[in-house]
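Dear colleagues,

I hope this message finds you well. In preparation for our joint manuscript, I am sending the Acetolactate synthase small subunit (Candidatus Thermokryptus mobilis) sequence together with its predicted structure, so that both groups work from identical material. I would be grateful if you could confirm receipt.
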Amino acid sequence: MRHTISILVENKFGVLTRIAGLFSAKGYNIESISVGPTEDPSISRMTIVTNGDDDQIEQIIKHLNKLIDILKVVDLTNEPFVERELALIKVKVNPYTRGDVIQISDIFRAKVVDIGPTTLTVEVTGKSDKITAMINMLAPYGIVELARTGAVALKREFKGEVYSSKEIKLIKKKSRQKPTEDTEKG
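The corresponding structure tokens are as follows:
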């Protein structure tokens, strides 16, 4: 089963190597890995997509939590989460196929980011399966180059609770009120 694991790590030299080494030593494959700084420059968020059964993933998480510089490990697989991936795809075109490639890009809500006499480069973002589908649609035209980021993910906070318009007005009203002495003490 495909698992998406979010890891908060201290932004220090060698952390990525230790995590990749752990996966390698245990014989687990990393399908994709993305790393970047968070809102706090001293912390990075790492998103790893891997395959395994629940017991294997539980073991991976236990081992990750033992590594130094690891702050938090969360398997997002069974949680609601938002996932996105980015790909830049350079496609071979000619005057007859250029319009087709642009039309496919529009269908996938991709952007043309570079154009040349014999190539067109598009940028597409979305879930991994959307990226793969677009690549498959463009493959017959001839993919010259491809760069794909791997998934990035965050836990979804909205759980589906819907407030009435009266509740929204009350929430807004309360957020604008100045704190009283009672609320300041408590």
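For the figure legend, we might mention the following. The beta strands are 2-10, 30-37, 43-51, 70-75, 81-92, 111-115, 119-126, 143-148, 152-155. The helical segments are 15-26, 54-66, 98-107, 128-138, 165-176, 181-185.

With kind regards,
E.M.
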